[in-house]
Design brief:
The model has no long low-confidence stretch (mean pLDDT 93). Helix content is 40%, strand content 14%. The two termini are 24 Å apart. It is an alpha/beta fold. The chain contains twelve helices and eleven strands. 44% of the residues are buried. Helix 3 packs parallel to helix 5.
Length: 280
């Protein structure tokens, strides 16, 4: 058995519905959400069942909106031993808001998540990894509100997020928060995203697995993976009016995601962010 077989990694889920995603922010606004039928509850319950089948504990970065509209999901996450984190209130990107708006958004999400779950929320992930050089003050807000860690940065080039020259590995920032970036590998001097989401759906499983193993061997760091409940839901409504590229990113290979995920859960060892990074 190799060290790759024994390496413990972090499994994370960004708990949001299909209509919350940044790809569709030109179509839906928060005022529209109440007119739509939520699917995130059933999808998240399915994921918890799947994790239980494989003996996996995970971190669920959850929207305050989900806690308000699907409280049973939040209660089950903590009741079954998973970690509950904050993903903001309504999935509005932090780099589109002012300091006071972001503070209110994060505080509101933390308050409702803790009220529903009865547990302290220690971790935060910005919607669409939307902390960059324009709003590093988000980390000051997190410290002020009592968060212990963040996983809000993705050091790649991307049209929606990313600061390529930011640190690739977990570190304590100058504000005092522990930041856990999404994993990348380096090819020809460029950071390549391998953390999950659309990349995992797009590429064949063997390629994703080979990149994960390259990360482990090159860095000797724990790997962390992220995805969303809507990614195992090929029957979700097709959104009209969104840009073609956004729809392509969102819908590609939804029908094979659950099969890939099951293999990922079987091939590697997983735990929550808090257990992996904060329990030492």
């Amino acid at each position: 058995m190799s060290f790759l077989d024994e390496r413990i990694n972090a499994m994370t889920v960004d708990v949001e519905d299909y209509f919350h995603v940044s790809a569709f922010e030109s179509v839906f606004t928060p005022s529209d959400y109440k007119t739509l039928t939520p699917r995130v509850g059933d999808n998240t319950h399915r994921l918890i069942d799947l994790f239980n089948e494989h003996g996996v504990k995970a971190t669920f970065f959850t929207l305050g909106w989900v806690a308000e509209n699907c409280p049973d999901v939040v209660k089950r996450i903590v009741d079954e031993g998973h970690e509950l984190g904050s993903h903001g209130s309504n999935h509005k990107r932090t780099n589109t808001m002012t300091f006071s708006e972001v503070k209110e958004d994060i505080k509101r999400s933390k308050d409702i998540l803790e009220e529903v779950s009865g547990k302290p929320v220690k971790g935060y992930r910005a919607p669409s990894f939307s902390v960059d050089t324009s709003n590093e003050w988000v980390f000051d807000i997190l410290v002020e509100l009592g968060f212990e860690y963040s996983s809000s940065t993705y050091p790649i080039e991307h049209d929606l997020y990313g600061v390529p020259d930011w640190p690739r590995f977990p570190h304590v920032r100058k504000e005092g928060i522990f930041e856990i970036p999404v994993p990348t590998i380096q090819e020809k001097g460029k950071n390549i995203g391998i953390g999950g989401g659309g990349y995992f759906r797009l590429y064949p499983y063997w390629l994703s697995s080979r990149r994960i193993q390259k990360y482990m061997m090159d860095t000797e760091q724990p790997y962390n993976f992220y995805f969303h409940p809507w990614e195992i839901d090929p029957e979700q409504p097709r959104v009209k009016g969104a840009p073609f590229k956004s729809k392509l990113r969102h819908y590609v290979n939804l029908n094979v995601m659950e099969k890939k995920l099951k293999k990922l859960l079987k091939d590697y060892k997983w735990t929550s962010m808090q257990e992996l990074y904060l329990s030492k």
